[in-house]
């Protein structure tokens, strides 16, 4: 039985699952391990189930035991992991998207409501008592008829759009590419952020944190918004320049902010504490029991499947299974001129879940570098390796997933 280190305490159902699958090292006291302790405790382990609170930087990864084959991150992103360092060590990195979309979208709507309807001020007034009703007491912004801009129309963004539309909001969005009419559901596409921000009475940030999106809300871009706009963030703190947003709030360019994430978590920029219109939560996006169990179980499955497929190439049927799957994929996407290279080497993990093909699911190969960036499959070679990593339902398309960068990187087999 393979041995893994689980760096944070999981909900009991997930720890029971891990016990059935692996020889796990649990963190029974939910201690926040230092980097040196993670290195020490991972000796003899095949994988690490990490959390966003674990700083897996270059120095830490370089000191991990040679036995470590995979870091399975208990999160939708990889912000705590140095992907380049992991790649150089030959350590795979996975995450847990999709299973938290519903819960995170619910928090996204809560941020919009809380910021627009001055919930923070209302809570304080109710707790202090003695408040007096008047016709203009704690008047906020009504959602009906207002324009919601969604920055990043992936799964979470689409779910927020659906709920917001039911509340009478008019949906606008910016994405790396335009969605199909079916997925847009009447939303209005903008091909640049200036255009989107200029019509956003409320903005919901749902995009992944990348080099391109870091500090996308900054001193310059806040000026694109209508005066009195509301900015909410359910994605990652790195996307917002806190000082720029605090300044915009103080001078009332921005009416209110709703944040579930922020830089330097859990330490909030003290400037927000002085702003009554800041509605701020402690990163509760995925904080429901069902979602946290699903995330942890997926992280466990990621390790299990990865380790299993490391030995799968020795199976006599491996090559024929791969080519059968490739033929199916090429046929599916021939209208997109989507041609897949015949893989001529087994020197990298070929995570092709051909044995998992069923009537309900087909495994579709979407290629990416080990650092998490999608690539053109025609450019594959031994010096530029990448692996197929994503499974989608038969009625969904490659184009849909190509437009959702946050969907890449997870070994959903």
Explain what this protein looks like in three dimensions:
Helix content is 31%, strand content 15%. The chain has a seven-stranded parallel beta sheet with strand order 8-7-6-9-10-11-12. The chain has a five-stranded parallel beta sheet with strand order 2-1-3-4-5, sandwiched between helices. By secondary structure, it is of the alpha/beta class. It has helices at 12-21, 35-41, 58-62, 83-89, 101-116, 119-128, 155-166, 181-184, 193-198, 242-250, 289-311, 318-332, 398-402, and strands at 3-6, 23-25, 47-51, 70-74, 92-94, 147-151, 170-174, 188-190, 202-205, 229-233, 254-259, 278-280, 361-362, 367-369, 386-388, 392-393.
3D shape: globular
Radius of gyration over all CA atoms, rounded? 23 Å
Order of helices and strands: EHEHEHEHEHHEHEHEHEEHEEHHEEEEH
- Count of individual beta strands: 16
Strand content: 5-15%
Sheet with most strands: 7 strands, parallel
Distance between the termini: 20 Å
Report the structural category: alpha/beta
Give the overall average pLDDT.
80
What level of helicity do the residues show? 25-40%
Q: Which strand order does the major sheet show? A: 8-7-6-9-10-11-12
Tally of DSSP helical segments? 13
Taking pLDDT < 50 over at least 5 consecutive residues as the criterion, the unreliable ranges are: 311-326, 332-413
């Amino acid at each position: 039985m393979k041995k893994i280190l689980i760096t944070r305490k999981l909900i009991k159902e997930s720890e029971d699952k891990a016990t059935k699958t692996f020889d796990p090292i649990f963190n029974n006291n939910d201690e926040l391990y230092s980097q040196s302790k993670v290195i020490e405790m991972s000796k003899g382990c095949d994988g690490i189930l990490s959390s966003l609170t674990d700083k897996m930087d270059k120095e830490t990864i370089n000191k991990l035991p040679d036995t470590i084959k995979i870091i399975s991150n208990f999160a939708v992103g990889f912000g705590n992991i140095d992907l380049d360092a992991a790649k150089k060590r030959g350590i795979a990195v996975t995450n847990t998207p999709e299973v938290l979309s519903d819960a995170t979208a619910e928090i996204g709507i809560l941020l919009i409501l809380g910021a627009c309807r001055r919930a923070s001020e209302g809570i304080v007034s109710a707790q202090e008592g003695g408040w007096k009703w008047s016709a203009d007491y704690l008047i906020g912004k009504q959602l009906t008829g207002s324009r919601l801009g969604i920055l990043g129309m992936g799964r979470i963004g689409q779910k927020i759009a659906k709920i917001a539309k039911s509340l009478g909001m008019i949906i606008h969005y910016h994405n790396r590419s335009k969605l199909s009419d079916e997925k847009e559901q009447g939303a209005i596409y903008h091909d640049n952020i200036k255009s989107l921000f200029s019509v956003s009475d409320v903005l919901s940030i749902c995009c992944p944190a990348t080099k391109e999106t870091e500090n996308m809300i900054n001193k310059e871009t806040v000026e694109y918004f209508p005066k009195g706009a509301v900015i909410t963030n359910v994605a990652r703190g790195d996307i917002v320049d806190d000082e720029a947003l605090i300044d915009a709030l103080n001078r009332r360019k921005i009416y209110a902010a709703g944040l579930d994430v922020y830089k330097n978590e859990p330490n909030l920029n003290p400037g927000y504490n002085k702003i009554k219109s800041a509605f701020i939560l402690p990163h509760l996006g995925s904080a429901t029991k069902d979602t946290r169990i699903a995330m942890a179980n997926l992280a466990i499955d990621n390790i299990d499947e990865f380790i299993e497929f490391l030995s799968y190439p020795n199976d006599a049927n491996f090559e024929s299974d791969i080519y059968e799957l490739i033929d199916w994929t090429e046929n599916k996407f021939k209208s997109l001129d989507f041609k897949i290279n015949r893989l001529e080497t087994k020197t990298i993990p070929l995570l092709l879940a051909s044995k998992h093909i069923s009537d309900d699911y087909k495994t579709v190969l979407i290629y990416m570098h080990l650092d998490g960036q999608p690539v053109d499959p025609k450019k594959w070679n031994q010096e530029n390796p990448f692996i197929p990593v994503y499974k989608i339902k038969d009625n969904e398309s490659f184009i849909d997933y190509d437009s959702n960068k946050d969907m890449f990187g997870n070994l959903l087999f």
